[in-house]
Amino acid sequence: MPRVLISDKLSPTAVQIFKDRGVEVDYLPDLGKDKDKLLEIIGNYDGLAIRSATKVTEKILAAATRLRVIGRAGIGVDNVDVPAATARGVIVMNTPFGNSITTAEHAVAMMFALARQIPEANASTHEGKWEKNRFMGVELTSKTLGIIGCGNIGSIVAERGVGLRMHVIAFDPFLSPERAIDLGVEKVELDELFRRADFITLHTPLTDKTRNIIDISALLKMKKGVRIINCARGGLIVEADLKAALDSGHVAGAALDVFEIEPATAHPLFGHPNVVATPHLGASTTEAQENVALQVAEQMSDYLMKGAVQNALNMPSISAEEAPRLTPFVKLAEQLGSFAGQLTETAIKGLRIEYEGDVAEMNTRALTSAALTGLLRPLLQTVNMVSAPAMAKERGIAVEEVRREAVGNHEALIRLTVITERQERGVAGTVFADGKPRIVEIKGIGLEAEFAPSMIYVTNEDKPGFIGRFAGIIGDAGINIATFNLGRLAAGADAICLVAVDGAVPDAALEAVKALPMVRQAKALAF
Ligand SMILES: NC(=O)c1ccc[n+]([C@@H]2O[C@H](COP(=O)([O-])OP(=O)(O)OC[C@H]3O[C@@H](n4cnc5c(N)ncnc54)[C@H](O)[C@@H]3O)[C@@H](O)[C@H]2O)c1
Ligand SMILES: O=C(O)[C@H](O)COP(=O)(O)O
């Protein structure tokens, strides 16, 4: 039974779903703050469910020897070392939509709070001061709202802004002109947004490009009296520069839900009269927390129990519906890759994968990952479908995918061609109605063989006497032949032989096969 650790505060719904799906679960919501304890126990788990408090570092991953999946109940995964997880073959998945509305609403609430100084007015009123003349606000209607990052959350904020009769402008290099029209926003460049906006709200991920996107030079480009909202990530704003601009009065107000260092218990901006601060509450509504807990537990259970992959950041998706049909082809692709990998002795320059017939309509990204896994495993024991594409890229292996209609006898065929300095080697296979993968072609020669744990592959000249002498050597070594599969280009031409045997092949027997006059190559293979 797979075992999952929940190390941050999640709705009890998550625990129940794991249990209902047959996954053992430990709920230790304070562990995110105790990295030593996490390090001590993480090796016992197949899955780790987190929010933003748990930091999944390289060190934690190194100790997580059983870990197969990290599930982020939320959006941002900047607390996870995703490249390190990928290199170790651990899937990282998030719940990209579960808290978007809630976070967009928080940004809008922050905008109102700034416009009408609601937190300050609230505190003053509770103190019995009745400072009616102190708090003079601004209207939102007809003001320009500048949105930086118009993805899931930014788009919802845009729609709300339009509803409030604001003029909404957006900077997002990936926002298409059509989508901008649909949302009713004007797409602009960043400098123009800085120049025109009365309110600026940030909704990008924290990346090398967005870090410090609001620094002193950006602030100086903004209108005097601008108000800034950040419900995305600390690190997008240079906090010291913002403080200087607030102190000078250039910026009229800032509303911050996120901080460069969290938890932020002491901060130079705390206590500033024009700053509204909340403790990373963007996703904190009952509805959003139910959504993300349910979704993360379902996604992680689906992966651990059925091999379905959804919302992974480092692996192609495989839906629960397609998993049963895809799984035998995943196995075929991996075994074909393994066949080619075990035969390849020089550096691999490229891999061409041809998908013919029905399989061309399937999830070929997942199949290509599986083929690369098999190909690289003889070199890299720990490679899996998550890490294989990154590892192939790191090694400069060019991957080409070709999809076409069925051309031969098979309704679905996968052909791998491995390109090395010396040669190109092709191998093709299919899955029969029994769900078992078969090799149906090697180096352009047709045959039909099931994969077996232990096999011998021989290339030879098609001459009389080979089969008898080969079988004699193998029999003398005390090895039982399970299946014997032959193919040849033409009578007397190149031939191949793929034999399944019961047990490992002794080196001496393999050397004796290689020494036969008609044999060109003999290799023991394991699947
Ligand atoms: N405060 C919270 O509790 C809370 C809750 C949820 C999400 N978030 C954060 O909100 C942010 C947005 O989340 P989302 O779900 O909308 O993400 P998203 O991926 O749907 O949207 C992000 C958008 O930013 C755009 N973008 C990327 N680089 C950019 C750049 N250099 N300049 C301008 N735009 C750029 C992308 O094109 C994309 O459209 C994330 O950082 C997420 O972690 C915070
Ligand atoms: O990226 C997110 O989903 C938000 O930052 C929410 O973080 P939280 O789950 O820690 O509240």
UniProtKB/TrEMBL annotation:
EC number: 1.1.1.95
Keywords for this protein: Amino-acid biosynthesis, NAD, Oxidoreductase, Serine biosynthesis
Pfam families named in the record: 2-Hacid_dh, 2-Hacid_dh_C, ACT, PGDH_inter
Species of the source: Methylobrevis pamukkalensis
Stretch forming the signal peptide: none
Source taxonomy: Bacteria, Pseudomonadati, Pseudomonadota, Alphaproteobacteria, Hyphomicrobiales
Domain D-isomer specific 2-hydroxyacid dehydrogenase NAD-binding: residue ranges: 108-282
Single GO MF annotation: phosphoglycerate dehydrogenase activity
GO biological process: L-serine biosynthetic process
Metabolic or biological pathway: Amino-acid biosynthesis; L-serine biosynthesis; L-serine from 3-phospho-D-glycerate: step 1/3
Family: Belongs to the D-isomer specific 2-hydroxyacid dehydrogenase family.
Reaction catalysed by this enzyme: (R)-2-hydroxyglutarate + NAD(+) = 2-oxoglutarate + NADH + H(+); (2R)-3-phosphoglycerate + NAD(+) = 3-phosphooxypyruvate + NADH + H(+)
Domain ACT positions: 455-517
Function: Catalyzes the reversible oxidation of 3-phospho-D-glycerate to 3-phosphonooxypyruvate, the first step of the phosphorylated L-serine biosynthesis pathway. Also catalyzes the reversible oxidation of 2-hydroxyglutarate to 2-oxoglutarate.
InterPro entries, per the entry: ACT-like_dom_sf (IPR045865), ACT_dom (IPR002912), ASB_dom_sf (IPR029009), D-2-hydroxyacid_DH (IPR050857), D-isomer_2_OHA_DH_cat_dom (IPR006139), D-isomer_DH_CS (IPR029753), D-isomer_DH_CS1 (IPR029752), D-isomer_DH_NAD-bd (IPR006140)
CDD domains, sorted: ACT_3PGDH-xct, PGDH_4
Domain D-3-phosphoglycerate dehydrogenase ASB: 325-443
Official protein name in the record: D-3-phosphoglycerate dehydrogenase
